[in-house]
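Changelog entry: the 6-phosphogluconolactonase record was regenerated in this release. Current contents:
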Amino acid sequence: MIKRNLGAFILAFAVSVSVAQNPTIPLYVGTYTSPNGSQGIYEFAFDPKTGDAQLIGETKSSNPSFIAKRGVLLLATNEMTDGSQTLSAFRIGDKQLSLINALPTGGSAPCHVVMDQGGKYAVVSNYLGGALDLYALAADGSLREKTDTKLYQGSSVNKNRQEASHIHSAFFGKDSLLYVSDLGADKIYMLAVVQGDRGYTFQEKGEITVPAGSGPRHLAFHPNGKLLYSLSELTADIHVFEKKKDTWSLVQTISMNAPGFAGKNGAADIKLSQDGKFLYATDRVDANTIATFAVNRKGKLTQKQVISVMGKGPRNFNFSPDERFILVGNQLTDEIVVFARDAKKGLLTDSGKRIKASKPVCILF
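Regenerated structure tokens:
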């Protein structure tokens, strides 16, 4: 009996040690919802050592196509076009997300949200209507009020896609300014958020012009704050801008496609590794690839690898916290593909791990 109990104790101890050595972390996935598909935001338990993931729960929310979080607050843009489009605030709990409140957006098809470092306000990009919205956040994480909306009315040379301003994203630079990509106008606007008598408001600080017909979508900043990488959806080019004094100058344009590619482009997302040595970008439509670039000491890019995403419609992607993996959300094939990443060479290989999710379009740790 003593031996049997001792054996059970040893087994239990071994299991507890194994769990302690391989703790899981929360993984949230924003989606496009449908009656027979996703109902909102997925939460998975992700194992950063193995790349495995287990579904924990699903929170109902209409088309939460982009999500952002800080602490126990998670924000989601409800990308609707029928007048019900909102920004929703959720509290992260032990078992599931709980809705705090929601406020309407100033435009249509809200597709991106970002919070400031202090968690005092949030900025929403609306793909339709040319609207950039600013929301004040309360201490409890709720959306207090919408304090400002900036409306843009631009256009460019691609008459099918650039007939009007399409605000696609807003990211904070190292200078604390907002850099807002307008796909429709081939512009990146620079804005400050200031606090005055009527709350937080936008203040214009300048703009960057990208080559005509490019369609800037998302961007990334080098850790030194003096280099900006803008991904163009319509051409699948990456434009490298360098800041000298207060002026951003275009210093390189490089395609993310493999040599000889002649299909339609739909570049989607771009991110830089924490050490600033490697940059990654996804392309949808005909390519369905993720590209890897090496970043030299001056910030210039050299293409190292272009590989299949093992699916269709690669939208958003993200690094695991330790950057051992890159997770790519394939919207059209209802799956997240987990790639193993070589930190020294930057190259990606298929880990063989897959996470089932209906129309995944935003991945967040």
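The helical segments are 2-21.
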